[in-house]
Write a structure and sequence with these properties.
Rossmann fold; 6-stranded mixed beta sheet; exonuclease; single chain; alpha/beta
Length: 295
């Protein structure tokens, strides 16, 4: 089995903490830090449990600055922008990540998914396997033979075959699948009338979105419910589907990490960690966990 790197979808776990943790934690300035507390607990538990030697945590810089917004202005427009209090906590979560000697990835033009994807791709070429810590179905497209995705909250792990079990398509078809049936979370509408099962059936038959659109005349003759209507919708929305795939496909040329050495956990400065704990007013238990994780 190849050596392993853990790649963490940091923004997902900050948002989860924001929604799940009670608003009863405050820093030295009296500002709410419930998301920081929840994220720090998650990160401590992950490090204690997995004990990774090579790890990176990727964060989204913004909901509106990705290259995808230039392609499709409505991308993620259905999401409310984080309030200033949460933006502040994102900065503090990044500080906790770096204080533990963990590589932190962020870029204004690329999303966390792209940074993780590009890093996983770079390291696969060097013989490494990736464990992607996230519940996001988009990451299914990144899983190679030895890779895994780990939904940490549910403690579910799966590889490439698990993607097919969940979605009905193989990893290399996930971006096409999402372009066809849409992704409500990212405000990608997909082709009207093409749901998840139909998208999977079409890709099983044609193999790819490109092949489907080249052979669109065959769709009406498939044993699909509403096949003729589906063919008509695909003709009408073919260019939109191609555009949506540019949104659903994770970039593999983003400025991710190019060497495993850059992801090796670094010795942390205890003084920096202590100052951060003081500023965040962490309790004795959290401080002792963080100290025990220092390298």
């Amino acid at each position: 089995m190849p050596s392993t790197v853990h790649l963490v979808d940091g923004s997902l776990y900050v948002f989860r903490a924001w929604h799940s943790m009670p608003d009863e934690f405050f820093d030295a300035e009296g500002q709410s830090i419930n998301a920081v507390h929840g994220f720090t607990r998650f990160l401590c538990e992950l490090l204690e449990r997995a004990q990774p030697d090579h790890i990176a945590v990727a964060f989204d810089a913004s909901l509106t600055s990705s290259f995808r917004n230039a392609i499709y202005p409505a991308y993620k427009a259905n999401r409310e922008l984080p309030p200033p209090s949460l933006e502040r906590q994102f900065v503090q979560c990044r500080a906790v990540t770096e204080a533990l000697g963990i590589c932190m990835m962020i870029d204004h033009a690329y999303e966390a998914d792209d940074l993780i994807g590009s890093t996983a791709w770079n390291l696969r070429m060097q013989g490494w396997r990736s464990i992607i810590v996230s519940a996001d179905k988009d990451f299914g497209q990144l899983l190679g033979e030895h890779d895994e995705q780990w939904d940490y909250a549910r403690n579910l792990r799966w590889g490439p075959t698990g993607v097919h079990e969940k979605l009905g398509v193989h990893p290399h078809q996930v971006a096409d699948y999402l372009a066809l049936c849409g992704d409500a979370i990212d405000n990608i509408p997909g082709v009207p009338g093409v749901g998840a099962k139909t998208a999977a059936a079409l890709l099983t038959h044609f193999g790819s979105l490109d092949s489907l659109l080249e052979r669109i005349d065959e769709v009406a003759f498939l044993r699909l419910r509403g096949a003729a209507s589906c063919a008509s919708k695909l003709r009408e929305h073919a260019e939109n589907a191609r555009t949506y795939r540019r949104l659903t496909r994770i970039a593999l040329d983003a400025p991710g990490v190019s060497t495993a050495e850059a992801l090796q956990r670094q010795p942390a400065d205890p003084a920096v960690l202590e100052a951060l704990c003081e500023q965040l007013r962490f309790g004795a238990f959290t401080r002792s966990r963080l100290r025990a994780l220092l390298r």
